[in-house]
Amino acid sequence: MKNNSEAWDHDSMATDSSSAKKHTAAILQQDQEEYSFCLSATSEVSSPSNDDGGPPPPPSEYSRASSPPSWELPTSPLTKSPWSSHMLVPEPSSATASGYSYTGLMGSLVREEGHIYSLAAAGELLYTGSDSKNIRVWKNQKEFSGFKSNSGLVKAIIIAGERIFTGHQDGKIRVWKISGKDPSVYKRTGSLPTFKATVKSSFNPHKYVEVSKNRNAIWIKHTDAISSLSLSEDKSVLYSASWDKTIKVWRVSDYKCLESITAHDDAVNSVVSGFDGLVFSGSADGSVKVWRRETQGKGTKHFFSQSLLKQECAVTALAVDPLATMLYCGSSDGMINFWERDKFLSHEGVLRRHKLAVLCLATARNMLFSGSADTNICVWRREEGQHLCVSVLNGHSGPVKCLAVEEDCSHSGGGGHYMVYSGSLDKSVKIWRVSAQASPMVQQSPLSPPAATSGHSFVSQSGSSRPGQRRKQ
């Protein structure tokens, strides 16, 4: 969790020409340092010494992960890389000669230091973000490339074509692009807000808003950690959620900040662009809110529509299924609430499986994957109005912080198989193969402890979540 008492001296209110000049000079110096960083696929690697000179990452209240065993690191494309790959090859299933019905661990990407906070998958590439400030790129479970920001651990990653947007602890969004000459080289093309917009706003006192008592900042800039990123349905707008209680709206074409929404009374832990022009936000204040997007000329404006949930425990994760039919919400009490689009976002039930906070959610077709502080990943299949828990993936020794899912098209058997990537505070990324055709498991009491590679089926149950812990993601 981030200490909200951190100093942001450059966000002080510019009340006269002198203070504005000082403010702009500080921004100029900071951005020049950012842009002076030499991006290369081989030059920068993370190290335990934190050679950036920045502060250590904030402690996590769930950082009870035990350290992974020491491994002899193989030769890596990145000099002295702290990563190593450990792949498992499952034996062919007795039921099918191909073995594609296998559900379980395929391998691990193990790191010597640093918690894994963010993942994104695109085709054969996997992007991983950690508190080392590095973004690693993996191809076929092998280290392919990497790039690094000068500050701010990587809290969120989202891919938009050839561009990669990364959200950071320092409140900035950085934009990266694959080199046209070498696909293994990534270059930083800018940051949000842009340097030009930041300087221009700094000279205008009317561009400042009050963010806390005796503290003001320009409205286009996040003043706390970015917790979540999401692209609109048409990919033209980027949404960023922050611990500063706001959601900011960015135009992807020119990186202009179109709007800042004061969305919640506490940190916004998740934002997701949904269906029918709706945007959903979840917060540590225990609420899930719906925002309606309307186009106004060349701009866009968002209006509050309704609250779907108000509870004592924090909302920690949101997800919309690819079929745009369901909205899922994970909470710090281990519950997953869900709403159905075709029933005018009526509350359809609660999934009870995890013993601790649900920290991340991912969807694929009619599948839902939930990662938790209890170290497990639950695999749910939705069919005939019910959510069936078909698998529990167990292998991490620390909380599961992030998930990414890709359909497994590596064989001719068609759909129904998925590659699931999970990042954990145990400093590892694990790779799972999941069969969507697995039989529901024997039903147990919802309070029964989960078992590795076993689970149970649940009929979706309506009801309110029990009180839980209020926390930031």
Describe the structure.
With 473 residues, the chain is mostly beta strands. The chain is built from two helices and 31 strands. A hairpin with a 3-residue loop joins strand 18 and strand 19 (287-296). Helix 1 (17-35) runs antiparallel to helix 2 (195-202). The longest helix has 19 residues, at 17-35. It starts with 16 loop residues before the first helix and ends in a 38-residue tail after the last strand.
List keywords for this structure.
single chain; about 475 residues; mainly beta; 5-stranded antiparallel sheet; 4-stranded antiparallel sheet; about 45% strand; disordered N terminus
Q: Would you tell me the overall average pLDDT? A: 77
Radius of gyration: 22 Å
Largest beta sheet: strand ordering: 1-2-31-30-29
Structural class by SSE content = mainly beta
Distance between the termini: 7 Å
User: Helix share of residues?
Assistant: under 10%
The percent range for strand residues is: 35-45%
- Count the DSSP helices: 2
Record field, number of beta strands: 31
Global outline: globular
**For the report, how would you describe the main beta sheet?**
5 strands, antiparallel
Low-confidence runs:
1-22, 31-85, 92-99, 443-469
